[in-house]
Amino acid sequence: MKILVTGREGQVARSLAQQGAGRDLVFAGRPEFDLADGDSIARTIAKVHPDLVISAAAYTAVDQAEDEPDLAMAINGEAPGLIGRAAAAIGVPVIHLSTDYVFDGSGDRPWREDDPTQPIGMYGKSKLAGEQALAASGASYAIVRSAWIYSPFGSNFVKTMLRLAETRDTLGIVSDQHGNPTSALDIADALLAVVDRWQENPRHGIDQVYHFAGTGATDWATFARAIFAAGAVHGGPDCDVESITSAQYPTRATRPANSRLDCTKFERTFGLKSPPWQTSLEKVVGTLLA
Ligand SMILES: NC(=O)C1=CN([C@@H]2O[C@H](COP(=O)(O)OP(=O)(O)OC[C@H]3O[C@@H](n4cnc5c(N)ncnc54)[C@H](OP(=O)(O)O)[C@@H]3O)[C@@H](O)[C@H]2O)C=CC1
Ligand SMILES: Cc1cn([C@H]2C[C@H](O)[C@@H](COP(=O)(O)OP(=O)(O)O[C@H]3O[C@@H](C)C(=O)[C@@H](O)[C@H]3O)O2)c(=O)[nH]c1=O
After folding, report:
1. Taking a C-beta distance cutoff of 8 angstroms, is the pair 144, 182 a contact?
2. CB-defined site of ligand 1, < 6 Å
3. Domain annotation for the chain: domains and CATH numbers
């Protein structure tokens, strides 16, 4: 099965390259594949002619999206519809990544797939528009919402913490936003499980939204402390973490206070559950500090 993965340099795409070694994976990225250029989307999908598309490229700069709403909407909101149309034209399905930021952050129970979406920032709004565009495109699809992704690749919160700790003794980190840290390597395994299931039965769990994220919830400050604790074993930098409120750490975009995801539907459908977030974190920090 030939799989086209978009977002060649991104965390999820690079994790797919690692976890899917030996499979027929083709990676597309800028400049020749640009989500802001509809022609390049259609051209790439027609040329590669994959059996399945994994749509992992996105505009992921949450604060910057507030200042570039049109660009964020073109890349995250409109392009998934174009990917869907191009995939439908050759009769292949799309697995598309989306985010916990489609929810408004109210309440304290984990969000289920059919809970009402109400994004509070431009990034979340654009990602929700993309889910809707793909669903309306005519392609068969699975939309997999994940959260708080980190990995040895690209930029992410874990790498930011380890970098800042090189020069700082104390960091103030928000403790009033709750979610599920997720290793991109675990996401790659989950996406490949969907691929394998569809090879057996292409209609299994098709045209659905799923949640897949690290097992167990935490807040960013506790996550940061766990990063330094995991790093200490490998001689990583030490740093005190002071819990602060979101009001004490103003950002351009407001983040949801509760973005915990209920992942039972994915587990029930594809038989896979993410490891506890602490287990995956230890592995990634070990790789980063090796
Ligand atoms: N990071 C996170 O915490 C979370 C991410 N997600 C979703 O998961 C998916 C994968 O995220 P992740 O791997 O972390 O993303 P990254 O930010 O690591 O990578 C995004 C990739 O998208 C590419 N990209 C951005 N704009 C364009 C464009 N106009 N045309 C083509 N490619 C473009 C980037 O290319 P370039 O290298 O050229 O900049 C980059 O390779 C995304 O859909 C994201 O919304 C969901 C939940 C959490
Ligand atoms: C660097 C830093 C961040 N923070 C806060 C800001 C924010 O609320 C939280 C996490 O910071 P980040 O900038 O990594 O967060 P953010 O970019 O909002 O991460 C999000 O990215 C997108 C793509 C998603 O889809 C989400 O699931 C989520 O992972 O930590 C501090 O409190 N202190 C600090 O020193």
Report:
1. no
2. 7-12, 29-30, 33-36, 56-60, 75, 97, 99, 127, 146-149, 154
3. 2-156+180-216+259-275 (3.40.50.720)
Burial of 197 (0-12, 13-18, 19+ CB in 10 A): middle
263's CB contacts (< 8 A; 6+ apart) are: 110, 180, 210, 211, 212, 213, 215, 273, 274
The pLDDT value given to residue 169? 95
| Cα 76 to ligand 1 centroid, rounded to whole Å | 9
Mean pLDDT, all residues of the chain: 98
Task: Answer yes or no: is the ipTM higher than 0.85.
Answer: yes
Look at ligand 2, atom 15, and give the residue with the nearest C-alpha: 157
Split at pLDDT 50, 70, 90, the class of 135 is very high
> pLDDT, tens digit, for every residue of 232-259?
999 999 999 999 999 999 999 999 999 9
Does the active-site annotation cover 249? no
State in Å: Cα 3 to ligand 2 middle: 30
Residues 52-78 have pLDDT tens digits of 999 999 999 999 999 999 999 999 999
Strands (E), 188-250: 208-211, 218-219, 240-244
Q: Of 59, 123, 150, 210, which one is the catalytic site residue?
A: 123
- My answer on whether omega of the bond before 250 falls inside 30° of 0, hence cis, is no
